Structures are given as C-alpha cells and as structure tokens.
Amino acid sequence: MDLAKKWHEDLVKERLVKGLEKNGFEVQIYPDCQAALTQILASIPLAATVGIGGSKTLQEVGLPEALARRGNLLYDHSKASSPEEAQKIRRQQLGADIFLTSTNALTLDGKLVNTDGVGNRVAAMTFGPARVIVVCGLNKLVADVPAAMQRIENIAAPINAKRLNKATPCTQTGYCCKCNVPDNICRVTTIFNKKPSQTKIEIVVIEENLGY
After folding, report:
1. What is the pLDDT of residues 139-168, one digit of tens each?
2. Mean pLDDT for the chain overall
3. Up-side HSE of residue 81: CA atoms within 13 Å toward CB?
4. Is residue 207 within 8 Å of 141, Cβ to Cβ?
5. Which of 42, 73, 90, 151 has the fewest CB atoms below 10 angstroms from its CB?
6. Sign of dihedral through CA atoms 40, 91, 191, 178?
7. Does pLDDT of 1 surpass 90?
8. Which residues contact 188 (CB under 8 A, 6 or more apart)?
9. Environment class of residue 119 by beta-carbon count within 10 Å: exposed (0-12), middle (13-18) or buried (19+)?
10. 3-state helix, strand, coil in the chain (%, to 5)
11. Burial grade of 71 (CB within 10 A; 0-12, 13-18, 19 or more)
C-alpha cells in the first residue's frame, strides 16, 4: 500500500464529507458497489415506491434490478414501451416515496451540479419525494462548480448523448459544441449549493469509477 497516496485520498474524502455535511446533506462512503448496494437495500422499506432517475451508475451498482427482484414498486421510465408511457412514469417519480439517482458532478466543498434534457431528474431531486438517495463514484468528484461544468460538457453530456443515440454535434466531437438542435440534452442545469429545505438527500459515494 502506498501510504502517502492513501494519506492524500483520506484527506480528500474527509474534506468532501465536511463540505457535504456543512451544506445539509447526509453522506456515506463505501469501498465498493457491493457494500453500497447492501446498505442501500437495507435502508429502503419493501413497501416503499421508488423512482429511478436515468443513471448508468445505478445500473452498474445493480440497484434497480435488486429492488425489482425483491418486490418494490419502481417508477423507471427506461422500461417504458412508448414516449407517452415514459412521460407518465416521469411524473409518477415526483410522487415516489424515495427517488434514486446519481449526479453529474460533486464538488469538494459539497455541491451537486446536474444538467438535464427533460428535467425530471433534477425536479425529483429538488422537491417531490421526501427522500432522495444520490449514488456516485469518486470519478464524479471535482474541485468546484466551474470544474463541474467542464466535466458535464466534456464527459457526461457527450457520452450520455451517444448512449441515447442523440443527433447532437457532441456525439461526433466528444465535447460540448453549445448546440441548438432538437436533440440537445443540456437544457436545465441545477446547482445544489445546499440541501433543499424540505427534502432529505443522502449522498452515497463509492470508491470506484462509475457511470458518466
């Protein structure tokens, strides 16, 4: 084990936790996906309805599958058979007991930065479900809000646009071109400077590279 590297990593995590807690968020850090999955599942009642925000991270952790397997009612628009059904499910997510999602970026001083195309994810994170669980890998950690925007424009947005088969310039260039096309997925940006006053938000950080 590289003790100097571990020393620095521990300091970074300590700074992150202090920043998040100062801003009103609850935070837990887990070494891997399995540890996080076990604890998150244990914290969600079987009777709870759960909204699923569009998130590669949640898929990689295995949360939607595990919740469905044990019988929780999920509002997951990725499973919809039509655009109309997807829109209906997005609205149901706003009334779920718990909303699960990830974040595009997490700053060292405890802010969450997210950019959406439809807006259902950032809407549900802000107000609606009484409890929100945000799951993210340490790869989402950045220095500050400007760095978060750079991460979104140069990593998260182009990869997500490619994943969703969007006809946007970034799917060709790999970086944001400030486009104004119908398939643009960068329409709403939120910065959580602090936890919304009426929403409980728990941040679950996993010490792995997850999602986009």
Report:
1. 999 999 999 999 999 999 999 999 999 999
2. 96
3. 0
4. no
5. 42
6. positive
7. no
8. 115, 116, 117, 119, 122
9. middle
10. 45, 20, 35
11. exposed
In this structure, what token pair is assigned to residue 18?
Answer: 């202090």
**Are 52 and 79 contacting, i.e. CB atoms less than 8 angstroms apart?**
no
d(CA 108, CA 101): 19
| Token pair listed for 120 | 């259902």
The pTM of the whole model exceeds 0.85: yes
Residue found by looking up tokens 């700053």 in the block:
107
Distance CA 212, CA 196 (A): 25
- Reduce the DSSP state of residue 134 to 3 states and report it: strand
Joined together, the tokens standing for residue 23 give 């801003």
pLDDT tens column, 2-35: 899 999 999 999 999 999 999 999 999 999 999 9
Q: In what order do the strands lie in the sheet with 188-192?
A: 141-142, 105-107, 112-116, 188-192
Phi, psi at residue 55, to the nearest 5°?
Answer: -160, 120
- Select from 199, 182, 181 the least CA-distant residue to 190: 199
